[in-house]
Amino acid sequence: MSIARPARCLFCTLSRAATSSHRIPRRPFHSSPAQLNRKADDPSVKASDMKTLQEIRKDLKPSDFKPYTEEEKSRLSEEYSPAQIAAIEAGEAAIDPKDMAEQFAVRRDPMKFHYLDDFSTIEPVVDKHIRAPASNSDYNARLKDEDELMDDFARYFREMPENATAADWVRFVESLRLTIGKEENELNPSSALVPDLFEPGESLSKDPQPVESLKTTHGQEKPSEEMTDALKKLLQATGYTLDTIRSLKLKTLVSHAVVNQTRLGKIRRQYCLSIAGNGNGLLGIGEAKSEESSDAMTQSRYRAIRNMHPILRYENRTIFGDVRGKVGAVELKLMTCPPGFGLRCQHLIYEMCRAAGIHDLAARVERSRNPMNTVKAAYEALMSQKDPEEIARARGKKLVDVRKVYYAGRV
Amino acid sequence: AIVIHKCTFCFADGIERSAVPLKFSTGLLQRPYALERLSHITTAVLGHSLLIPDMSLVNLAHVCSSLNNANKARLALASIPHTKLHLNICIALQQSGLISSIVRGGPTAPAPHLLLGHPTIVDEEAGAEPVTQSNVASRRLWVGLKYWQSEPVLGTMTSISTPKRKISVKLPDLRNILQGRRSGSVDGLRSPGECLYLKTDRGFMEARECVEKKVGGLALVRVN
C-alpha cells in the first residue's frame, strides 16, 4: 500500500458540520510504514546528488539562508495576500541567518522524533484530539419556535428561483438552522467527551468508506421470506428487533424422540431443549415437543428467547462463589474460577456458559448425568447465585471485594 | 467415713459420699474436712473431674439444627439452651448482622416490643424477666431471625467441631480458608458472605476478625 493515496474521510463527505467548519487535513490510517528512502520520482535527481541530513548540517553556512528572489516572491503572491507577504518578510528579517545556521541541528536528544514529519497534518492516534473550543458553546441557545421555522420556509419560497430543482431544496434544508444562538454551537459544538478513535468511515486496514446513511427501508427487505406468525408473535411479545434476535446465541442442546401410547397407537413426537443467550449476561432455556422435528426446534428456541433472564456474573467472566443445583437425580456444583481458567466443564454446561457470557468456570456433575436435567440443574444453579449487594443490604453490613480493593485484581 | 453436712450451694441436706462413684472420689476421702466441703461441691456441681471447666460442644449441633429448622419454617424467634457458648456465638452472629436480637427468656417466647416488633430487654412495658435462683434452670435464649426477599439471612448453619473431635485452626491455615482453599478438614469459604466462627483466647470471633487480630482458635460453626 502506498502512502501517496490521499484518504479523505469525514471532511470530504457532504456533511453539514464539515461545510461550515474549516477543514483539518488528517492522515490516513494506513498500516504500511512510510517509505522514506525511496528513490526520487524525478529521474534527473541522482542518488549521488542526494545528501543525508548529517551532511546537510555539516555543510550549512549562514550564506545558505538567502532572502526570497523575485521569482519566489511572485510565486508567493499567487498564494498569499500582500499583507501576509509583508508579515512573512518581516518575520524572516527578524531572524539572523547566522543563528539559523548554528541552530539548525538534527536532534539527538532522547526526546527526538524517530520519524520525519512536518506536523502539518494531524495523526488520528498520536496527536492531540481535534476538539471544538469551549468558546463554541452557547448556553443561551434555544430551539426555534414553529413560527420562526415557518418564517424560514416562507423566506425560501419567496426567494426561490424560477426553475427550482431538488438541489436547491437540499441546499436549503442543509443550511437550515434549528437553534437560535451561536452558529458554532449547532454545527461544531464543544464536547467534553473524547472524540472517537475511528470516525465513521475510518478503519485501520481499509480506505475510508462513505458513511452509511440511515436507511429505514433497508431492514424490511430481507425477512419478508422468513417472517412467520410465530416469529411475529415473538417480536411482539419480547419487543426485540429481528437484528437482536439474529445476534443471539441459540443452540439446541437436547433433542430426542418421545412416544405417547394412546388407544389409537403410538404417537411419536420430537422433544427439543434449547438455550438462548446474548453472550453478555442473559440466558434462557426453552423446551418444546412437536410431531415435526423442525417445528419442535424452532418453538423451543423461541421459548428460550422468551425465557431469557439476567445471570449474575463476577467481573463479567465467572460466577459469584460456588453454587449447587439439583433437578431429579442430577446434582451438580458450579465453582468460581480465576481469570484465564476457561470453561472446564461438561459440553452442555459449556454451551450454556458461552451463551451467557461466562468465561471461567469449573463444574462437577455428581450423580446422574441426564442431559435434560443437567441443563435445568445448571440453570437453577446459575440463577441461585447470591448477590453481594443484597447480602450487604440484608445484614446491614458493608461487603468489600478484597481482590479488587486490596490486591488490585492481581490475586 | 460418711459425713453428712449442709451445703449452701446445692440446697441439699447432705450428699452421701458413698453415692459418688469411687473413681472420682478416691482422693477426696483422704482430704481434711475443709477441703472435703469444696471438693464435694466440685464433684456435685461439675460432676466429673477436677480439671478447669470448658464450654461444652454437646448442644452445638442441636443449636445449628434448631436455627436451620426455624429458618425453613420462616419463624421470627427461635429458642436455644442458655449457655455461655451459645450466648457468645449468638453475639458474634448478631455482630455479623445474621440475626437481629438475642433475649434471655423462659420456656415461652418473650413479648415483642411494641415498636420494634422483636423482644428486647429495654422494653419498659414488658420489661426483662429477672433471673433468679428459682428460674435460672428454665432460661433459654430467644434469637430473633432475619429474612430478606423471602430468604433467610442466616442461611445454613453447620457445626464444625464436635465434642469428640475438636478442630483447631492455626493462623496460616485460617488465611488459606479465607482465600477459599481447604485446610485440613475445614473447607474454604467459597460463597459470598460465608462466615466461620472461632473460639479464641481473645473471645468469640469471625474468621476474618481472627486473621486481623492474628489469632487462631477452635472452629465452631460455619454459616453459609
Can you describe this structure?
The complex is a heterodimer of chains A (411) and B (224). Chain A is built from 16 helices and ten strands. The relative contact order of chain A is 0.07. A four-stranded antiparallel sheet of chain A has the order 3-4-5-6, with helices on both faces. Chain A has a four-stranded mixed sheet with strand order 7-8-10-9, with helices on one face. Chain A has 411 residues and is α+β, with helices and mostly antiparallel strands. Chain A starts with 15 loop residues before the first helix and ends in a 6-residue tail after the last helix. Mean pLDDT of chain A is 85; it is low at 1-15, 17-21 and 215-221. By secondary structure, chain B is of the alpha+beta class. Among the domains of chain B are: 52-122 and 136-153, Ribosomal Protein S8, Chain: A, domain 1 (2-Layer Sandwich), CATH 3.30.1370; 160-223, Dna Ligase, domain 1 (2-Layer Sandwich). In chain B, helix 1 (22-29) packs antiparallel against helix 2 (33-46). The model of chain B is unreliable at 1-49 (pLDDT under 50). At the A-B interface, helix 15 of A face loops of B.
